[in-house]
Design brief:
mainly beta, four-stranded antiparallel beta sheet
Length: about 100
């Protein structure tokens, strides 16, 4: 969703079909905007970060690339003091994973 300064909805977006298919029976779990203006999102168990951009027209987000990570999704966050450093969770072992993305 995109809102104006008065919190009125001005746009809404959906994930592309191939991303939803990779979610299988689950859903999106984590997401964060990168300094490059793209949305980085994860599913629950896929071990991947989906890199998306806003469409110039329409409501379907554009899947730019899928980056492998040694994590299972759940939550992600950028380390804003270390460019390209993304924190995620390896739920099965309760570990925080630090990934260096280009």
């Amino acid at each position: 969703m995109k809102f104006d300064e008065s919190w009125r909805r001005v746009a809404g977006y959906v994930y592309p079909r191939e991303m939803i298919e990779r979610f299988q029976q689950m859903s999106n779990s984590g997401g964060t905007w990168g300094e490059d203006g793209r949305l980085y999102a994860t599913g629950h168990d896929d071990g991947a970060v989906f890199v998306l951009s806003l469409p110039t027209a329409g409501s379907v987000l554009l899947l730019q690339e899928v980056l492998p990570v040694a994590a299972e999704g759940q939550g992600i966050a950028w380390d804003r003091s270390e460019p390209g450093t993304l924190y995620s969770i390896l739920r099965s072992t309760r570990e925080v994973v630090v990934s260096k993305l280009r």
